[in-house]
Design a protein that fits this description.
The protein is an alpha/beta fold. It is built from six helices and six strands, in the order E-H-E-H-E-E-E-H-H-E-H-H. Strands 1-4-3-2-5-6 form a six-stranded mixed β-sheet.
Length: 155
């Protein structure tokens, strides 16, 4: 049986944008999205209003999700020692927050990664640690569910 995960949004008023408030509220309602991650995992969500802002590395908002002992903490700003950055277009976020399950969320996230579209939505990952380290931390299981990491990579 899967343990019930808790979630907490720290300092919700610190977010600059309404879309960040909506996205963090959504994520806090579905902490099971992060159930594969090990304790101590910490990564950034950077929100971009265009491909140009992504190329210039100037997100409209940024927050991080930290996997604590029994759930997640969602905090404004960058993590101190982020595992990776998940860069998302606002168009992608608006569709992601409509999903109802971890699997539906993961598959849609994967489709934005595998078939990015400037108008419909896109995501990208900027890894700050070695790929194998991230896989060992549980990011690999989520990436497989999302269709980002192929199953035939298992050796």
């Amino acid at each position: 049986m899967e343990e019930e995960l808790t979630s907490q949004i720290i300092d919700k008023k610190a977010y600059k944008t309404e879309i960040a408030r909506k996205y963090t509220t959504f994520l806090s309602q579905y902490p099971e999205i992060f159930s594969d991650l090990i304790f101590g995992s910490d990564f950034d969500f950077a929100l971009y209003d265009s491909l140009e802002s992504y190329i210039k590395e100037s997100p409209v908002d940024i927050f991080n999700v930290y996997r604590n002992g029994n759930g997640i903490e969602i905090k404004p700003g960058c993590a101190v020692d982020s595992d990776l950055e998940l860069a998302l277009s606002i168009d992608a976020i608006e569709k992601l927050i409509q999903t109802k399950t971890k699997e539906e969320y993961a598959k849609l996230l994967g489709s934005f990664y595998n078939n990015p579209d400037e108008k419909k939505g896109w995501i990208d990952f900027v890894l700050h640690k070695r790929t194998q380290t991230l896989i060992n931390m549980g990011y690999g299981r989520f990436a497989k569910t999302a269709g980002i990491l192929e199953d035939d990579d298992d050796k």
